[in-house]
């Protein structure tokens, strides 16, 4: 039986700044999750040495703080790029505001949860559900940055953390802020697991090069479905 050949067009979707942001952000989130968990539940590591020779926890906190600064400024850059980047990077892709967006959310949920085949073409950039989920994750990123700097402000004279010193009394004290900051850690854990799974799953279902696109920036679309 003869098969119809399909013609694909290569589209440049993810610009270099978006890809750099993604991998820096992924690296920072991984380091922050591990160090943050250990700060919340430190290991009882003992050595046959003096106390001043056992500075592993101080080093752990230093790595957490430095990574937090990188994470924050990387996030600020992505916020800026949402206004000046190409149409796939724009903030309009992250907040559903059209009827078609909500229809696409329903389609994606059927594909992701019910494992059904897509009935119509899903956006080649972020689909509507993914975009909205990323928008919510950006809000959590901001919350973690603010609460983290608020906690750090009590032990730092740096201008940036001191800007958020007022957060501690507003949220009910250092302990309350620390609890909220630690609980938000689990959002990152769950988000990372679901994100990695869905990237590979949509790569398989759609066949657009979803996984490799965050390395090279290119995705693929059938000419008869291109929009």
Please give the alpha-carbon distance between the first and last residues.
Answer: 30 Å
Instruction: Return the average pLDDT rounded to an integer.
Output: 87
Task: Report on the biggest sheet.
Answer: 2 strands, antiparallel
Q: If classified by CATH, what would the architecture be?
A: Up-down Bundle
Task: Give the overall form.
Answer: elongated
CATH superfamily: Transmembrane di-heme cytochromes, Chain C
The H/E string reads EHHHHHHHHE
Number of helices: 8
What's the alpha carbon Rg, rounded to whole Å? 21 Å
Major β-sheet strand ordering: 1-2
CATH class assignment:
Mainly Alpha
| Low-pLDDT regions | none
Count of separate structural domains: 1
How does this structure look, described?
The chain is mainly α and 227 residues long. It has a single domain, classed as Up-down Bundle (Fumarate Reductase Cytochrome B subunit). It contains eight helices and two strands, in the order βααααααααβ. It has a two-stranded antiparallel sheet with strand order 1-2.
Offer a quick outline of the entry:
By secondary structure, this protein is mainly alpha-helical. 63% of the residues lie in helices and 4% in strands. The protein contains eight helices and two strands, in the order βααααααααβ.
List keywords for this structure.
227 residues, mainly alpha, Fumarate Reductase Cytochrome B subunit, two-stranded antiparallel ribbon, 8 helices, 63% helix, elongated
């Amino acid at each position: 039986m003869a098969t119809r050949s399909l013609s694909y067009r290569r589209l440049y979707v993810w610009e270099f700044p978006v890809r750099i942001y993604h991998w820096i952000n992924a690296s920072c989130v991984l380091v922050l999750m591990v160090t943050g968990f250990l700060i919340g539940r430190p290991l009882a590591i003992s050595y046959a040495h003096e106390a001043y020779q056992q500075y592993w926890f101080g080093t752990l906190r230093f790595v957490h703080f430095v990574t937090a600064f990188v994470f924050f400024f990387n996030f600020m850059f992505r916020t800026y790029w949402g206004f000046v980047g190409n149409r796939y990077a724009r903030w309009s892709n992250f907040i559903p505001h059209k009827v078609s967006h909500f229809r696409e959310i329903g389609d994606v949920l059927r594909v992701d949860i019910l494992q059904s085949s897509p009935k119509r073409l899903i956006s080649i950039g972020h689909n509507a559900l993914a975009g909205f989920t990323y928008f919510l994750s950006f809000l959590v990123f901001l919350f973690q940055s603010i609460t983290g700097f608020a906690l750090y402000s009590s032990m730092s004279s740096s201008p940036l953390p001191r800007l958020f010193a007022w957060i501690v009394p507003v949220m009910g004290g250092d302990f309350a802020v620390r609890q909220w900051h630690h609980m938000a850690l689990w959002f990152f854990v769950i988000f990372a697991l679901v994100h990695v799974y869905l990237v590979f799953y949509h790569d398989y279902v759609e066949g657009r090069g979803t996984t490799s696109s965050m390395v090279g920036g290119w995705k693929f679309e059938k000419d008869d479905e291109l929009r």
